[in-house]
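Team,

Forwarding the record for the chain on the shared tracking sheet. I've put the sequence and predicted structure together so nobody has to dig through attachments.
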Amino acid sequence: MPEHSKYCPQCSQRNHDGKLTFREMMAESIGTLFNLDNRIFNTLRAMLVPGKLTTNYFEGKQIRYYHPVRLFIFTGLALASIIAVRFQQSDLYKKQEGIFDGNKAELTQKRFFANLDTARIAFNGDHPDAASVAAVDSFASRANFLHPVPVESDSSGISFRFFGQQKLSLKIANLDLVELSTDSLLTKYGIHESWDRYRLKQYLQMYKQPNGFILSLLGKAIWMLLLVVPLLALCLRLLYLRKPFVYYEHFVFVLDISSASFVLLFLNFIFKQSPPIWLTVVLVVLSMIYPFIAMRRVYKEGFWRTSLKYTLFTLAGVALGIVSLLLLLFASILLF
């Protein structure tokens, strides 16, 4: 490095002996924070104009913006997080959360009353005089546990197919369902074949924790979408085969329009209650026309040619979305 250089031309490191004062350290920290904020504002400002973020990136104006992959992951995780929060605040979440706990409390109460009735019968056997029997039966009647419904009579029938596999049917006592661990339950009911044990175990876990399964699904969605992006970029590569764009540029374009869509969807979920209908309509329309305008700006083709390619690109996106959703569901069931 030249003797009087202030910065390294290779890595931009400031030229000094490595010893910083507290003031210099705080100044660097504050500067880093403000630079980070500037990149956020610059990126969001560029996203307001469809295609601008991508074209600026292609022109080499990259340091002022978030990296496309980082932006995609950041906006995707933000969207998944706010959807998870809104789901946890919904009536469906509260209803599903109380189903299993309610069944468990009801069965526990039934078993308690059944034990009391067993004790009543045993006491009457030890004290068969009419006065004692009448007193105990009167107490049992007032406490509402005289001749309770046997707990063992309650059962749940489980019958399902696991992605086209052979149908598995089983009748399980509800008391066992809430009290036994999954492995103990499978052993008790004679499920020994490894594949049957595995699929029934996953089914029971989803039955006991439906909200946990949905939240797990949301957590994996962004990573599944990240796998879809390269395929969408390949579709654009085929649609614009005669254009002087390399695959990487199509990849960046898909990341940018996906990030913009995540931001639009995020705005729809910032309201704790249902958003105004007009806002939902506006955001849906924007999410539909944003990629079209971006395609015209980036690829510089006419209206009708872009319309045709936009339609094909959208159809490919819908098809890949359905396939990725099925794969996501399959992976979530296997890994939950």
